[in-house]
Write a structure and sequence with these properties.
With 229 residues, the protein is an alpha+beta fold. Helix 1 crosses helix 3 (125-137). The two termini are 26 Å apart. The protein is 16% helix and 48% strand. Strands 1, 2, 3, 4, 5, 6, 7, 8, 9, 10, 11, 12 and 13 form a 13-stranded antiparallel sheet that branches.
């Protein structure tokens, strides 16, 4: 998410707006992936099949839980994604319906359309949120140049990216994308896990998403409430 730890300050500030509480490490709040043999699976076929089931333009309503060390806060996000053009908008509310912020951006930039009056957001706040949206919703398909590693119960696509090396892990009974992760050298920087895909109008949407930023030690848990296509 954040390029510096200042981004974490945003969430702690928001915690002050929506209610700060203490928490320990959480377990996975979604149904775990059921790993099965992929011995008869053609990797290129599952990549193409998965790509055909992803919606390029959609709007979703999510509940969002941010956890950093012993701090935790939750909010509601209205997110508009155009993955083909790499555009996004997000409006974040607390559970009382108070609008906290509104952002709009693309693959390279972001603009803060609204920020809660009186809140002193860190300078890199918008960039921090935008980075997480891109990690979760953009570039969900490995490219044709990706190297393929076929394991016993998973298929890994590995390719270089602007920020390091990306890995895409496909597994489960339907051979869907279950994890996307970024490395710099041998160090894993962040991971996004996808759970419980839901189908609507022939397209798939993960009902549960967990983003773990290993470098800054925070976690986002996103639970899908509604799809608006």
């Amino acid at each position: 998410m954040a390029k510096t730890k200042k981004g974490i300050a945003l969430y702690l500030l928001l915690a002050g707006l929506v209610g700060l509480c203490s928490t320990g490490c959480s377990s996975i709040p979604f149904k775990k992936v059921q790993y099965v043999s992929v011995s008869k699976v053609q990797p290129t076929a599952i990549r193409e099949q998965f790509a055909s089931t992803l919606s390029q333009k959609f709007q979703v309503i999510n509940t969002i839980v941010f956890q950093y060390r012993r701090h935790k806060f939750s909010a509601i996000g209205y997110t508009d994604i155009d993955s083909l053009q790499k555009l996004f908008k997000i409006i974040c509310l607390n559970h009382a319906g108070i609008k906290l912020f509104e952002l709009a951006g693309n693959d390279n930039s972001v603009e803060c359309k609204f920020a809660f009056e009186g809140a002193s957001f860190p300078g890199n706040f918008a960039q921090a949120v935008a980075d997480d949206i891109r990690r979760i919703y953009f570039d969900s398909i490995p490219g044709p140049e990706a190297k393929i590693y076929k394991k016993k119960k998973k298929i890994i696509f590995r390719q270089p990216s602007e920020t390091g090396v990306m890995e895409y892990i496909f597994a489960g009974t339907d051979n869907l994308l279950v994890e996307k992760r970024c490395y710099k050298g041998w160090r894993k920087i962040w991971s996004v896990f996808y759970y419980e895909y839901r189908r609507k109008n022939g397209k798939l949407y993960p009902s549960g998403i967990m983003l773990k930023h290993h470098k800054y030690n925070y976690q986002l848990t996103v639970r899908l409430k509604e799809i608006q296509t």
